[in-house]
Amino acid sequence: LSANCSGCGPGYRTPLDAMKGPREEIVYLPCIYRNTASVRPDYLATVDVLPSSPTYCQVVHRLEMLNVRDELHHSGWNACSSCFGDPSKSRNRLILPSLVSSRVYVIDVGTDPRAPRIHKMVEPVDLYFKCGLANPHTSHCLGSGQIMISCMGDPSGNGKGGFVLLDGETFEVIGNWEHPGEAAPFGYDFWYQPRHNVMISTEWGAPKALLDGFNPAHVEEGHYGSNLNVWDWTTHRKLQTIELGPDGAIPLEVRFLHDPDATEGYVGCALRSNVFRFYKTEKGTWEAEKVINVPSKKVEGWLLPEMPGPSHLSVSPLASHLGLITDILISLDDRFLYFSNWLHGDIRQYDITDRRNPWLAGQIFLGGSLVKGGPVKVLEDPEKQEQPGPCIIKGKRIPGSPQMLQLSLDGRRLYVTTSLYSGWDKQFYPDMIKEGSVMMQIDVDTDRGGLSLNENFLVDFGKEPGGPVLAHELRYPGGDCTSDIWL
Protein backbone atom coordinates (compact mmCIF):
# COMPACT_ATOMS: atom_id res chain seq x y z
CA LEU A 1 0.00 0.00 0.00
CA SER A 2 2.82 2.43 0.82
CA ALA A 3 4.05 2.17 -2.76
CA ASN A 4 0.64 3.35 -3.96
CA CYS A 5 0.70 6.29 -1.56
CA SER A 6 4.27 7.40 -2.34
CA GLY A 7 4.97 7.71 1.37
CA CYS A 8 2.29 10.39 1.84
CA GLY A 9 0.49 8.61 4.66
CA PRO A 10 -2.17 5.93 5.01
CA GLY A 11 -4.95 5.41 2.52
CA TYR A 12 -5.50 7.22 -0.76
CA ARG A 13 -5.63 10.80 -1.98
CA THR A 14 -9.22 10.51 -3.28
CA PRO A 15 -12.02 7.92 -3.34
CA LEU A 16 -11.47 7.37 -7.07
CA ASP A 17 -7.77 6.72 -6.42
CA ALA A 18 -8.82 4.13 -3.85
CA MET A 19 -10.85 2.30 -6.51
CA LYS A 20 -7.56 1.67 -8.35
CA GLY A 21 -5.94 0.15 -5.26
CA PRO A 22 -4.78 -3.48 -5.02
CA ARG A 23 -7.22 -6.34 -4.69
CA GLU A 24 -8.03 -7.42 -1.15
CA GLU A 25 -6.06 -10.49 -0.02
CA ILE A 26 -7.22 -10.91 3.58
CA VAL A 27 -10.10 -9.60 5.65
CA TYR A 28 -10.59 -9.28 9.41
CA LEU A 29 -13.82 -10.34 11.09
CA PRO A 30 -14.77 -10.23 14.78
CA CYS A 31 -16.26 -13.58 15.82
CA ILE A 32 -18.68 -13.64 18.74
CA TYR A 33 -19.45 -16.46 21.18
CA ARG A 34 -21.91 -14.61 23.40
CA ASN A 35 -25.33 -16.35 23.33
CA THR A 36 -23.91 -19.47 21.69
CA ALA A 37 -23.30 -22.84 23.35
CA SER A 38 -19.58 -22.08 23.86
CA VAL A 39 -18.41 -19.94 26.77
CA ARG A 40 -15.21 -18.70 25.17
CA PRO A 41 -13.61 -15.35 24.42
CA ASP A 42 -14.55 -13.67 21.16
CA TYR A 43 -11.76 -13.51 18.58
CA LEU A 44 -10.61 -11.65 15.51
CA ALA A 45 -10.47 -13.97 12.49
CA THR A 46 -8.16 -13.40 9.54
CA VAL A 47 -9.66 -14.87 6.36
CA ASP A 48 -7.77 -15.43 3.11
CA VAL A 49 -9.78 -14.07 0.15
CA LEU A 50 -7.13 -14.28 -2.59
CA PRO A 51 -8.34 -16.86 -5.19
CA SER A 52 -4.79 -17.94 -6.13
CA SER A 53 -3.86 -18.67 -2.50
CA PRO A 54 -3.64 -22.27 -1.21
CA THR A 55 -5.61 -21.15 1.87
CA TYR A 56 -8.36 -19.36 -0.08
CA CYS A 57 -11.68 -19.19 1.82
CA GLN A 58 -10.03 -20.31 5.04
CA VAL A 59 -9.53 -18.76 8.46
CA VAL A 60 -5.73 -18.48 8.64
CA HIS A 61 -5.46 -16.92 12.11
CA ARG A 62 -7.58 -16.46 15.24
CA LEU A 63 -6.70 -13.81 17.82
CA GLU A 64 -8.55 -14.54 21.06
CA MET A 65 -9.55 -11.66 23.26
CA LEU A 66 -8.82 -11.71 27.00
CA ASN A 67 -12.37 -11.90 28.35
CA VAL A 68 -15.67 -13.65 27.70
CA ARG A 69 -18.98 -12.12 26.59
CA ASP A 70 -17.42 -8.95 25.17
CA GLU A 71 -19.63 -9.00 22.04
CA LEU A 72 -17.11 -7.60 19.56
CA HIS A 73 -19.02 -5.71 16.92
CA HIS A 74 -17.70 -2.97 14.60
CA SER A 75 -14.08 -1.94 14.12
CA GLY A 76 -12.11 1.05 12.85
CA TRP A 77 -8.58 2.29 12.31
CA ASN A 78 -6.02 4.38 14.12
CA ALA A 79 -5.37 6.16 10.79
CA CYS A 80 -7.10 6.17 7.42
CA SER A 81 -7.36 8.34 4.31
CA SER A 82 -8.20 11.33 6.52
CA CYS A 83 -4.47 11.23 7.45
CA PHE A 84 -3.25 10.77 3.87
CA GLY A 85 -1.11 13.89 3.90
CA ASP A 86 0.75 12.91 7.08
CA PRO A 87 3.72 10.57 6.38
CA SER A 88 4.17 9.98 10.11
CA LYS A 89 0.87 8.07 10.27
CA SER A 90 0.43 4.39 9.51
CA ARG A 91 -2.70 2.23 9.35
CA ASN A 92 -1.29 -0.37 11.72
CA ARG A 93 -3.79 -0.59 14.58
CA LEU A 94 -7.36 -1.90 14.41
CA ILE A 95 -9.69 -0.38 17.01
CA LEU A 96 -12.09 -3.06 18.21
CA PRO A 97 -14.81 -1.95 20.66
CA SER A 98 -16.97 -4.44 22.58
CA LEU A 99 -20.65 -3.57 22.42
CA VAL A 100 -21.70 -5.36 25.63
CA SER A 101 -18.66 -5.28 27.94
CA SER A 102 -17.66 -1.71 26.88
CA ARG A 103 -14.04 -2.85 26.58
CA VAL A 104 -11.93 -1.55 23.67
CA TYR A 105 -9.16 -3.69 22.21
CA VAL A 106 -6.38 -2.09 20.16
CA ILE A 107 -5.02 -4.67 17.73
CA ASP A 108 -1.57 -4.58 16.12
CA VAL A 109 -2.15 -5.49 12.47
CA GLY A 110 1.04 -3.84 11.22
CA THR A 111 3.74 -6.18 12.56
CA ASP A 112 2.23 -9.24 10.85
CA PRO A 113 -1.03 -8.50 8.99
CA ARG A 114 -1.90 -12.21 8.69
CA ALA A 115 -1.37 -12.80 12.42
CA PRO A 116 -2.60 -9.77 14.42
CA ARG A 117 -1.80 -9.42 18.11
CA ILE A 118 -3.27 -7.44 21.00
CA HIS A 119 -1.44 -4.13 21.48
CA LYS A 120 -3.49 -2.57 24.28
CA MET A 121 -6.79 -2.92 26.10
CA VAL A 122 -8.93 0.00 27.28
CA GLU A 123 -10.99 -1.15 30.25
CA PRO A 124 -14.69 -0.27 30.64
CA VAL A 125 -13.99 1.73 33.80
CA ASP A 126 -12.11 4.30 31.70
CA LEU A 127 -15.18 4.94 29.56
CA TYR A 128 -17.48 4.94 32.60
CA PHE A 129 -15.60 7.38 34.82
CA LYS A 130 -13.81 9.58 32.28
CA CYS A 131 -16.74 9.97 29.88
CA GLY A 132 -19.92 8.70 31.57
CA LEU A 133 -20.43 6.45 28.54
CA ALA A 134 -20.72 2.75 27.74
CA ASN A 135 -21.52 0.36 24.90
CA PRO A 136 -19.06 1.70 22.27
CA HIS A 137 -20.07 1.10 18.68
CA THR A 138 -18.49 2.92 15.71
CA SER A 139 -14.82 3.93 15.58
CA HIS A 140 -13.38 6.49 13.13
CA CYS A 141 -9.91 7.96 12.93
CA LEU A 142 -9.71 11.74 12.71
CA GLY A 143 -7.43 13.95 10.65
CA SER A 144 -6.00 15.23 13.95
CA GLY A 145 -4.61 11.77 14.68
CA GLN A 146 -7.12 11.09 17.44
CA ILE A 147 -9.67 8.28 17.42
CA MET A 148 -13.36 8.82 18.05
CA ILE A 149 -15.84 6.14 19.16
CA SER A 150 -19.60 6.60 19.33
CA CYS A 151 -21.39 5.10 22.33
CA MET A 152 -24.94 3.89 22.78
CA GLY A 153 -25.51 4.23 26.50
CA ASP A 154 -24.49 5.25 29.97
CA PRO A 155 -22.99 2.78 32.47
CA SER A 156 -26.52 1.87 33.69
CA GLY A 157 -27.74 0.79 30.24
CA ASN A 158 -29.83 3.86 29.49
CA GLY A 159 -29.64 5.45 26.07
CA LYS A 160 -26.93 8.10 25.67
CA GLY A 161 -25.42 9.13 22.35
CA GLY A 162 -22.00 10.50 23.24
CA PHE A 163 -18.49 10.12 21.84
CA VAL A 164 -15.20 8.97 23.37
CA LEU A 165 -11.87 10.37 22.19
CA LEU A 166 -8.72 8.23 22.31
CA ASP A 167 -5.16 9.45 21.89
CA GLY A 168 -3.94 8.12 18.55
CA GLU A 169 -0.51 7.17 19.89
CA THR A 170 -1.07 5.97 23.47
CA PHE A 171 -4.74 4.95 23.02
CA GLU A 172 -5.53 6.42 26.40
CA VAL A 173 -9.02 7.86 26.92
CA ILE A 174 -8.84 11.64 26.53
CA GLY A 175 -12.47 12.39 27.36
CA ASN A 176 -15.72 13.29 25.63
CA TRP A 177 -15.89 14.83 22.16
CA GLU A 178 -19.30 16.40 22.80
CA HIS A 179 -19.90 19.17 25.32
CA PRO A 180 -21.37 18.39 28.75
CA GLY A 181 -25.12 17.91 28.63
CA GLU A 182 -25.24 17.73 24.82
CA ALA A 183 -25.20 13.97 24.29
CA ALA A 184 -28.04 12.70 22.08
CA PRO A 185 -30.80 10.57 23.66
CA PHE A 186 -29.52 7.51 21.79
CA GLY A 187 -26.35 6.62 19.89
CA TYR A 188 -25.17 4.25 17.19
CA ASP A 189 -23.26 5.28 14.05
CA PHE A 190 -21.69 8.54 12.81
CA TRP A 191 -19.96 10.05 9.78
CA TYR A 192 -18.24 13.41 9.41
CA GLN A 193 -17.69 15.72 6.44
CA PRO A 194 -15.07 18.36 7.40
CA ARG A 195 -15.39 20.48 4.24
CA HIS A 196 -18.91 21.31 5.38
CA ASN A 197 -18.03 21.38 9.08
CA VAL A 198 -20.62 18.73 9.92
CA MET A 199 -21.04 15.35 11.58
CA ILE A 200 -24.26 13.33 11.58
CA SER A 201 -25.01 10.59 14.11
CA THR A 202 -27.80 8.03 14.33
CA GLU A 203 -29.82 6.27 17.03
CA TRP A 204 -30.45 2.58 17.73
CA GLY A 205 -31.83 2.21 21.24
CA ALA A 206 -31.18 1.89 24.95
CA PRO A 207 -28.70 -0.97 25.56
CA LYS A 208 -30.74 -2.37 28.47
CA ALA A 209 -33.76 -2.72 26.15
CA LEU A 210 -32.08 -4.40 23.20
CA LEU A 211 -29.53 -6.47 25.12
CA ASP A 212 -31.28 -9.83 24.81
CA GLY A 213 -33.59 -9.34 21.84
CA PHE A 214 -36.20 -7.09 20.26
CA ASN A 215 -39.43 -6.43 22.15
CA PRO A 216 -41.91 -4.35 20.11
CA ALA A 217 -43.30 -2.94 23.37
CA HIS A 218 -39.97 -1.20 23.95
CA VAL A 219 -40.59 0.90 20.83
CA GLU A 220 -43.84 2.07 22.35
CA GLU A 221 -42.08 2.80 25.63
CA GLY A 222 -39.58 5.10 23.92
CA HIS A 223 -36.46 2.95 24.21
CA TYR A 224 -35.59 3.22 20.49
CA GLY A 225 -34.55 6.26 18.49
CA SER A 226 -35.91 7.90 15.34
CA ASN A 227 -33.70 10.96 14.83
CA LEU A 228 -30.59 12.12 13.04
CA ASN A 229 -28.37 14.39 15.12
CA VAL A 230 -26.40 17.13 13.37
CA TRP A 231 -23.17 18.38 14.98
CA ASP A 232 -20.78 21.25 14.28
CA TRP A 233 -17.52 19.49 13.49
CA THR A 234 -15.31 22.34 14.71
CA THR A 235 -17.05 23.41 17.91
CA HIS A 236 -18.54 19.97 18.77
CA ARG A 237 -21.92 21.59 19.41
CA LYS A 238 -25.16 19.81 18.54
CA LEU A 239 -26.86 21.99 15.94
CA GLN A 240 -30.01 20.12 14.94
CA THR A 241 -32.18 17.13 15.59
CA ILE A 242 -33.81 15.87 12.40
CA GLU A 243 -36.96 14.00 13.40
CA LEU A 244 -37.55 11.22 10.87
CA GLY A 245 -40.90 10.20 12.34
CA PRO A 246 -42.48 6.75 12.19
CA ASP A 247 -40.97 5.95 8.78
CA GLY A 248 -37.49 6.64 10.14
CA ALA A 249 -37.64 4.60 13.33
CA ILE A 250 -34.33 2.98 14.35
CA PRO A 251 -31.92 4.75 11.96
CA LEU A 252 -28.76 2.68 11.89
CA GLU A 253 -25.86 2.98 9.42
CA VAL A 254 -25.25 6.50 8.09
CA ARG A 255 -23.17 7.16 4.96
CA PHE A 256 -22.21 10.47 3.43
CA LEU A 257 -21.29 10.28 -0.23
CA HIS A 258 -17.54 9.65 -0.45
CA ASP A 259 -16.88 12.82 -2.44
CA PRO A 260 -15.66 15.17 0.33
CA ASP A 261 -17.42 18.07 -1.39
CA ALA A 262 -20.79 16.31 -1.19
CA THR A 263 -23.52 17.75 1.01
CA GLU A 264 -25.73 14.67 1.15
CA GLY A 265 -25.85 11.02 2.08
CA TYR A 266 -28.16 8.18 3.12
CA VAL A 267 -29.26 6.39 6.27
CA GLY A 268 -30.98 3.01 6.59
CA CYS A 269 -33.96 2.99 8.98
CA ALA A 270 -34.55 -0.53 10.22
CA LEU A 271 -38.02 -0.72 11.71
CA ARG A 272 -40.04 0.34 8.68
CA SER A 273 -37.38 -0.66 6.12
CA ASN A 274 -36.82 2.77 4.61
CA VAL A 275 -33.77 4.66 3.34
CA PHE A 276 -33.68 8.41 3.88
CA ARG A 277 -31.55 10.88 1.98
CA PHE A 278 -30.20 13.70 4.15
CA TYR A 279 -28.94 16.92 2.59
CA LYS A 280 -27.86 20.49 3.26
CA THR A 281 -30.39 23.16 2.37
CA GLU A 282 -29.74 26.56 0.79
CA LYS A 283 -30.22 28.06 4.26
CA GLY A 284 -27.34 25.97 5.60
CA THR A 285 -29.55 23.68 7.69
CA TRP A 286 -29.99 19.96 7.17
CA GLU A 287 -33.11 18.03 6.20
CA ALA A 288 -34.06 14.47 5.25
CA GLU A 289 -36.49 12.81 2.86
CA LYS A 290 -37.52 9.20 2.32
CA VAL A 291 -36.24 7.90 -1.03
CA ILE A 292 -36.50 4.09 -0.75
CA ASN A 293 -39.14 1.88 0.85
CA VAL A 294 -39.11 -1.90 1.14
CA PRO A 295 -42.76 -2.84 1.61
CA SER A 296 -43.71 -5.40 4.23
CA LYS A 297 -45.21 -8.68 3.10
CA LYS A 298 -48.43 -10.09 4.55
CA VAL A 299 -47.61 -13.50 5.98
CA GLU A 300 -48.75 -16.25 8.32
CA GLY A 301 -46.48 -18.12 10.72
CA TRP A 302 -44.32 -15.07 11.57
CA LEU A 303 -43.06 -14.89 15.17
CA LEU A 304 -43.98 -11.19 15.43
CA PRO A 305 -47.52 -11.15 14.00
CA GLU A 306 -48.29 -7.65 15.26
CA MET A 307 -46.31 -4.49 15.95
CA PRO A 308 -47.95 -2.20 18.52
CA GLY A 309 -48.65 1.39 17.53
CA PRO A 310 -46.75 3.67 19.93
CA SER A 311 -48.17 7.16 20.12
CA HIS A 312 -44.81 8.84 19.49
CA LEU A 313 -44.04 6.80 16.38
CA SER A 314 -47.52 5.76 15.21
CA VAL A 315 -46.32 2.43 13.83
CA SER A 316 -49.25 0.69 12.19
CA PRO A 317 -50.16 -2.78 13.41
CA LEU A 318 -48.37 -5.41 11.34
CA ALA A 319 -49.91 -8.69 10.33
CA SER A 320 -46.92 -8.73 8.01
CA HIS A 321 -43.24 -9.34 7.67
CA LEU A 322 -40.87 -6.35 7.64
CA GLY A 323 -37.55 -6.29 5.80
CA LEU A 324 -35.44 -4.78 8.61
CA ILE A 325 -32.74 -2.85 6.75
CA THR A 326 -29.60 -3.33 8.82
CA ASP A 327 -26.38 -2.54 6.96
CA ILE A 328 -25.90 -0.11 4.06
CA LEU A 329 -22.88 1.13 2.12
CA ILE A 330 -22.04 3.26 -0.91
CA SER A 331 -19.52 2.40 -3.63
CA LEU A 332 -16.46 4.63 -3.72
CA ASP A 333 -17.56 6.28 -6.98
CA ASP A 334 -20.89 7.20 -5.30
CA ARG A 335 -22.86 5.37 -7.98
CA PHE A 336 -24.40 2.42 -6.12
CA LEU A 337 -26.04 2.04 -2.71
CA TYR A 338 -26.28 -1.44 -1.20
CA PHE A 339 -28.29 -2.64 1.77
CA SER A 340 -29.37 -5.86 3.43
CA ASN A 341 -32.93 -6.79 4.42
CA TRP A 342 -32.03 -9.04 7.33
CA LEU A 343 -35.50 -10.50 7.85
CA HIS A 344 -36.59 -10.78 4.23
CA GLY A 345 -33.23 -12.30 3.32
CA ASP A 346 -32.14 -10.21 0.35
CA ILE A 347 -29.45 -7.71 -0.60
CA ARG A 348 -30.42 -4.83 -2.86
CA GLN A 349 -28.30 -2.66 -5.14
CA TYR A 350 -29.65 0.78 -6.08
CA ASP A 351 -28.29 3.14 -8.71
CA ILE A 352 -28.11 6.53 -6.93
CA THR A 353 -26.86 8.61 -9.86
CA ASP A 354 -30.10 10.55 -9.46
CA ARG A 355 -29.67 11.16 -5.72
CA ARG A 356 -33.36 11.79 -5.01
CA ASN A 357 -34.66 8.94 -7.15
CA PRO A 358 -32.67 5.73 -6.60
CA TRP A 359 -33.69 2.79 -8.78
CA LEU A 360 -33.29 -0.90 -8.09
CA ALA A 361 -30.41 -2.24 -10.19
CA GLY A 362 -29.81 -5.63 -8.54
CA GLN A 363 -31.24 -7.97 -5.93
CA ILE A 364 -30.33 -11.38 -4.55
CA PHE A 365 -31.85 -13.61 -1.84
CA LEU A 366 -29.39 -15.46 0.42
CA GLY A 367 -31.53 -17.15 3.06
CA GLY A 368 -33.75 -15.22 5.46
CA SER A 369 -37.01 -16.11 7.15
CA LEU A 370 -39.19 -16.18 4.03
CA VAL A 371 -37.67 -19.23 2.35
CA LYS A 372 -39.97 -21.83 0.85
CA GLY A 373 -40.61 -24.77 3.13
CA GLY A 374 -40.11 -22.71 6.27
CA PRO A 375 -42.67 -21.73 8.91
CA VAL A 376 -43.53 -18.40 7.22
CA LYS A 377 -45.91 -18.35 4.28
CA VAL A 378 -46.25 -15.20 2.18
CA LEU A 379 -49.93 -14.39 1.59
CA GLU A 380 -49.55 -11.03 -0.12
CA ASP A 381 -46.48 -9.25 -1.52
CA PRO A 382 -46.79 -5.69 -2.89
CA GLU A 383 -43.67 -6.34 -5.00
CA LYS A 384 -45.20 -9.58 -6.37
CA GLN A 385 -41.99 -11.57 -5.88
CA GLU A 386 -41.95 -15.33 -5.60
CA GLN A 387 -41.12 -16.72 -2.17
CA PRO A 388 -37.39 -17.54 -2.47
CA GLY A 389 -35.91 -20.98 -2.06
CA PRO A 390 -33.17 -21.70 0.47
CA CYS A 391 -29.62 -20.57 -0.32
CA ILE A 392 -27.27 -23.54 -0.73
CA ILE A 393 -23.52 -23.12 -1.28
CA LYS A 394 -21.20 -26.11 -1.65
CA GLY A 395 -23.95 -28.36 -0.33
CA LYS A 396 -24.57 -26.27 2.80
CA ARG A 397 -27.94 -24.67 3.44
CA ILE A 398 -27.19 -21.16 4.72
CA PRO A 399 -28.66 -20.39 8.16
CA GLY A 400 -29.61 -16.83 8.99
CA SER A 401 -29.69 -14.01 6.47
CA PRO A 402 -27.33 -11.53 4.77
CA GLN A 403 -26.40 -8.76 7.18
CA MET A 404 -22.96 -7.07 7.27
CA LEU A 405 -21.64 -5.91 3.89
CA GLN A 406 -18.24 -4.88 2.60
CA LEU A 407 -17.47 -3.88 -0.98
CA SER A 408 -14.11 -4.33 -2.66
CA LEU A 409 -12.31 -1.11 -3.55
CA ASP A 410 -13.05 -1.57 -7.27
CA GLY A 411 -16.72 -2.27 -6.47
CA ARG A 412 -16.79 -5.70 -8.14
CA ARG A 413 -17.03 -7.98 -5.10
CA LEU A 414 -19.47 -7.69 -2.22
CA TYR A 415 -18.61 -9.72 0.89
CA VAL A 416 -21.45 -10.68 3.22
CA THR A 417 -21.80 -12.14 6.72
CA THR A 418 -25.04 -13.20 8.41
CA SER A 419 -24.87 -12.21 12.09
CA LEU A 420 -26.49 -8.99 13.32
CA TYR A 421 -26.08 -9.05 17.10
CA SER A 422 -26.08 -12.20 19.20
CA GLY A 423 -29.19 -11.30 21.24
CA TRP A 424 -31.20 -10.68 18.06
CA ASP A 425 -29.61 -13.61 16.22
CA LYS A 426 -30.83 -15.91 18.99
CA GLN A 427 -34.35 -14.51 18.71
CA PHE A 428 -34.81 -14.43 14.94
CA TYR A 429 -32.43 -17.12 13.65
CA PRO A 430 -31.93 -19.76 16.39
CA ASP A 431 -30.56 -22.19 13.79
CA MET A 432 -27.68 -19.80 13.14
CA ILE A 433 -26.82 -19.81 16.85
CA LYS A 434 -26.52 -23.60 16.67
CA GLU A 435 -24.82 -23.83 13.26
CA GLY A 436 -22.73 -20.66 13.23
CA SER A 437 -22.78 -17.85 10.70
CA VAL A 438 -21.19 -17.80 7.25
CA MET A 439 -19.30 -15.46 4.97
CA MET A 440 -20.32 -15.27 1.30
CA GLN A 441 -19.25 -13.31 -1.76
CA ILE A 442 -21.42 -11.65 -4.40
CA ASP A 443 -20.17 -10.67 -7.85
CA VAL A 444 -21.28 -7.19 -8.87
CA ASP A 445 -22.02 -5.93 -12.37
CA THR A 446 -20.64 -2.39 -12.12
CA ASP A 447 -21.64 -1.47 -15.68
CA ARG A 448 -25.37 -2.18 -15.84
CA GLY A 449 -26.00 -3.19 -12.23
CA GLY A 450 -26.77 -6.68 -10.99
CA LEU A 451 -25.76 -9.17 -8.30
CA SER A 452 -24.84 -12.86 -8.64
CA LEU A 453 -23.69 -15.41 -6.09
CA ASN A 454 -20.13 -16.72 -6.23
CA GLU A 455 -20.91 -20.39 -5.64
CA ASN A 456 -17.22 -21.23 -5.10
CA PHE A 457 -16.85 -18.98 -2.07
CA LEU A 458 -17.97 -19.95 1.43
CA VAL A 459 -16.44 -19.54 4.87
CA ASP A 460 -18.42 -21.69 7.29
CA PHE A 461 -18.01 -20.42 10.86
CA GLY A 462 -19.97 -23.40 12.10
CA LYS A 463 -16.81 -25.48 11.76
CA GLU A 464 -14.55 -23.40 13.98
CA PRO A 465 -12.32 -25.21 16.53
CA GLY A 466 -14.15 -23.67 19.50
CA GLY A 467 -17.58 -24.45 18.14
CA PRO A 468 -20.04 -22.52 15.96
CA VAL A 469 -19.46 -18.77 16.16
CA LEU A 470 -21.08 -15.56 14.88
CA ALA A 471 -18.91 -13.60 12.44
CA HIS A 472 -19.82 -9.94 12.04
CA GLU A 473 -18.23 -6.90 10.35
CA LEU A 474 -15.61 -7.17 7.59
CA ARG A 475 -12.50 -4.99 7.33
CA TYR A 476 -9.69 -4.85 4.76
CA PRO A 477 -6.15 -4.00 5.98
CA GLY A 478 -5.77 -1.34 3.28
CA GLY A 479 -9.01 0.46 4.04
CA ASP A 480 -12.49 0.22 2.60
CA CYS A 481 -15.62 2.19 1.75
CA THR A 482 -17.09 2.10 5.28
CA SER A 483 -14.02 3.15 7.26
CA ASP A 484 -12.20 5.75 5.13
CA ILE A 485 -13.18 9.42 5.15
CA TRP A 486 -11.59 12.03 2.92
CA LEU A 487 -10.86 15.58 4.00
From TrEMBL:
Look up the record and name the pathway of this protein: Organosulfur degradation
Q: Give the EC number(s) under which this enzyme is classified.
A: 1.8.3.4
What's the chief localization of this chain? nucleus
Top-level taxonomic group: Eukaryota
Show the InterPro entries listed in the entry: Quino_amine_DH_bsu, Se-bd
Task: Extract the SUPFAM superfamilies matched here.
Answer: YVTN repeat-like/Quinoprotein amine dehydrogenase
Q: Which GO terms describe its molecular function?
A: methanethiol oxidase activity; selenium binding
Instruction: Extract one GO BP annotation from the record.
Output: protein transport
> What compartments host this protein?
Nucleus; Cytoplasm, Cytosol; Membrane
Q: Carries keyword Glycoprotein?
A: no
How does the entry describe its membrane topology?
A: Peripheral membrane protein
Q: Which keywords has UniProt assigned to this entry?
A: Acetylation, Cytoplasm, Membrane, Nucleus, Oxidoreductase, Protein transport, Selenium, Transport
Q: What's any one GO cellular component for it? A: cytosol
State its role: Catalyzes the oxidation of methanethiol, an organosulfur compound known to be produced in substantial amounts by gut bacteria. Selenium-binding protein which may be involved in the sensing of reactive xenobiotics in the cytoplasm. May be involved in intra-Golgi protein transport.
Enumerate the PANTHER family for this protein: METHANETHIOL OXIDASE
Q: Can you tell me which family this protein belongs to?
A: Belongs to the selenium-binding protein family.
Q: What is this protein called?
A: Methanethiol oxidase
Give the source species.
Answer: Salarias fasciatus
